[in-house]
Specification:
Chain lengths: ~375, ~325
């Protein structure tokens, strides 16, 4: 997020960093986000198997693209409407590992929803990350609306939203792209195409190989990037951000990524992905590729790599302990924030059968939601 | 005080609010140059320009969804849905998104947005230009639902809606746009959301109504008054949050309640009113809580004979009152 273009040869500016106008600190910063996202994600699965948290939805395989594409946006000024795989996006935009884990545990202190939403529904006002719901692609229009307000209020903000290729088939995506293009809104749609929508392969989701091809129907650029190519993703996003800030309108970026895990902790992916495919996936993991790129460029020394690994592990251990021991939300707060103010006038009679909201002593049984989380 | 039509009160209130607060914008289909298909926004485009009065493409989900986003980033959008019948493509954005944004973010985000839509029948609009949709949305915690019946309330409630920090659905009975007139003060008064009004005090039967039916209920009350039946008409004005106190205290006083609504009878708004009264005023009742409502067909049929058959009117309400009075 450098202000002026760093030149290769200057202190802290490798050839690699200079090739995209960044500093080595930026590259290390991205690496740290990617490594943290992976580590927190792996921790989530461990906690799930240990029976500590009921549900995991993962970003493994998407992290490189996510960190790189969020990087050119300005924190606490620009906006991102993320989706359920956006762990690295959220970390790059100001959230901490602790915020991800308190959401996993749905604790009262969960920054995104105070334990009201399922894990994976990230978003909080302090970081200009839009609160996400479960019906896919609805966030598209919120980001477009944020971009509309940015244009009318002349704030110079850019709004980015991200989602999978399966979600790109929702009508809201069409309606939003059309409107954003008509008004040249400062908006970016990033499709993280991992080839699957749960079990349905992309060939049954799209009649064309690339979502990006659809951009031409809206008269906007559609760019395809390799989601494992961090610098390529960054370059595409930087161009889209610059274009948006110049008032030239939206861009559709399609990052080809891989889904390293099952769709979620409730999904048996061996039913629809072959053993060979699954074995081959590990060879394509984008994280070691970026690490090697940074090592080869002399940006990441062995020592720095070890330091980061230790720091990330300590961070996640501390975040896990913190989230484990944090308090659950109090059921007596569950009626709060339906509206900005309370409406006691609608309260059912306390003597009624099931009246008084039945909240006192309610144990918050979530069993009905489990197993039906897709 | 000036005598205004219902639609003038709405148009002028929007104009004043847009003058008062730069963050208020208007978006919808044909709301710009044309001034809306009913001319509710006539003149606003000329005064405020294309940035603040936006002719959108034909995309209802987009109109609501972008209004939600714009509301989260500092604006107060008024979204016009051309006919309430066409709000359904935006149902998901209203119910899954606007209604839940504050709750699901634990008060992180709010959606200060007003959605205006003309509803209601009796105008030869047939199945898809006559619908009453309030029950769908009044069911949803997180949405406020307002249905004014007089120009005075239309202005005061619209001001309150626009200034509210949560999403408000503001439904306007299209038959009232030019047929209803009333005094509207020139000052910046508010009619608070969540407060009903007793528009005709009486002692024997409470009639609960809103929108066009609030007028028809008054006509019916006058008719039966000549026959010696004293009716108290309560104009609900806001369906959610409901002014339970006014409703219950009227019913406790009269002991009988007739609920009038134009929407289909089954699970219409009156069903919830009946339930609340049965639960909370049971000991005071001298007769069955009853309803005069639209028949349960999937829409208002077009032919005038069929439309008359569908529509609730003052005679049907007076009949209902007589039956309940005789109980
Ligand atoms: C409107 C809606 N329909 C169905 C679902 C259930 N669902 C959740 S994620 C998902 C697949 C999404 O696939 P894609 O957009 O490609 O993203 P990916 O999960 O592969 O990253 C489905 C069907 C949903 N959440 N919302």
């Amino acid at each position: 997020m450098a202000a002026t273009k760093p030149k290769a040869g200057a202190a802290g500016v490798s050839e690699l960093a200079a090739s995209v106008g960044l500093t080595d600190d930026d590259l290390i910063g991205m690496y740290r986000v990617i490594a943290t996202a992976r580590a927190v994600d792996e921790r989530m699965w461990v906690l799930n198997r240990a029976g500590r948290i009921p549900f995991v939805i993962s970003g493994q395989g998407h992290e490189d693209a996510q960190a790189a594409i969020a990087w050119p946006l300005e924190k606490r000024k620009d906006w991102i409407a993320p989706f359920y795989r956006s762990i690295a996006t959220c970390l790059a935009f100001g959230m901490q590992a602790r915020d991800i884990l308190t959401a996993q545990y749905a604790k009262a202190i969960d920054l995104s929803s105070g334990g009201r939403q399922m894990p994976g529904h990230y978003g909080n006002v302090a970081n200009n990350l839009v609160s996400l719901s479960s019906p896919v692609a609805t966030q598209m229009l919120h980001a477009v609306g944020i971009a509309l307000a940015a244009k009318l209020r002349k704030t110079g903000q850019v709004a980015l939203t991200t989602m999978g290729e399966g979600s790109s088939n929702q009508g809201d995506v069409h309606e939003g792209l059309n409107f954003a293009a008509i008004h040249k809104l400062p908006f970016i749609l990033c499709i993280e195409n991992n080839g699957y929508a749960i079990s349905v392969p992309v060939s049954k989701q799209l009649a064309v190989p690339d979502v990006a091809a659809r951009a031409s129907g809206y008269g906007i650029p559609g760019v395809i990037v390799d989601g494992a190519d961090v610098l390529g993703c960054y370059r595409a996003a930087k161009e889209a951000v610059d274009r948006a800030r110049r008032g030239e309108g939206p861009t559709l970026i399609e990052a080809k990524v891989i889904r390293l895990t099952a769709h979620s902790s409730d999904d048996q992916q061996t039913k629809y992905r072959s053993a060979e495919e699954l074995a081959d996936l590990q060879q394509q993991d984008p994280l070691p590729r970026f690490r090697k790129e940074l090592r080869d460029a002399g940006v990441l020394t062995e020592e720095l790599e070890a330091t980061i690994a230790a720091e990330v592990k300590a961070d996640i251990d501390a975040a896990t302990d913190y989230a484990e021991s944090a308090a659950d939300p109090d059921p007596r707060t569950a009626m709060k924030w339906v509206f900005a103010e309370d409406w006691p006038g609608e309260t059912p009679p306390t003597w009624g059968f099931g009246g008084g909201h039945g909240l006192e002593g309610h144990e918050g049984d979530t069993s009905a939601a489990e197993g039906a989380v897709d | 005080m000036a005598l205004k039509t219902f639609i003038e009160a709405i148009r002028e209130t929007m104009t004043e609010e847009m003058r008062r607060d730069e963050s208020v914008i208007l978006l919808g289909e044909d709301v710009g140059l044309k001034g809306g298909v009913f001319l509710a926004t006539d003149g606003l485009f000329a005064e405020f320009g294309e940035d603040r009065v936006i002719d959108t493409p034909l995309s209802e989900s987009m109109i609501i969804g972008t209004s939600i986003g714009a509301a989260m980033n500092g604006l107060r959008p008024i979204a016009e849905i051309q006919f309430a019948d066409f709000i359904h493509p935006a149902f998901n954005q209203l119910v899954s998104e606007a209604a839940r944004m504050r709750y699901r973010s634990n008060n992180g985000f709010g959606v200060p947005m007003t959605v205006r839509a003309p509803y209601g029948g009796g105008v030869h609009g047939a199945l898809y230009h006559s619908q009453s949709v309030e029950a769908f949305f009044a069911h949803v915690p997180g949405l406020k639902v307002v249905i004014p019946s007089t120009p005075y309330d239309a202005a005061g409630l619209l001001r309150s809606s626009i200034r509210d920090d949560d999403p408000v659905l503001y439904f306007e009975h299209k038959k009232m746009y030019r047929s209803v007139r009333g005094d509207v003060p020139a000052d910046d008064y508010l009619v608070p959301l969540g407060k009903a009004a007793i528009t005709h005090p009486g002692t024997q039967i409470t009639v609960l109504a809103y929108g066009l039916m609030a007028h028809y209920a008054l006509e019916a009350a006058d008719v039966v008054a000549e026959e010696g039946v004293s009716v108290e008409v309560v104009d609900l004005r806001t369906l959610r949050p409901l002014d339970k106190e006014t409703v219950l205290s009227s019913v406790k006083k009269t002991g009988k309640c007739l609920i009038v609504y134009e929407d289909n009878r089954f699970l219409g708004y009156g069903a919830e009113l009946s339930a609340i009264i049965a639960e909370e005023a049971f000991d005071y009742l001298d007769g069955p809580v009853s309803r005069v409502a639209g028949p349960d067909v999937p829409g208002v049929p077009y032919n005038h004979v069929l439309e008359d058959w569908f529509m609730v009117n003052p005679e049907k309400i007076a009949d209902g009152i007589r039956k309940l009075a005789a109980y």
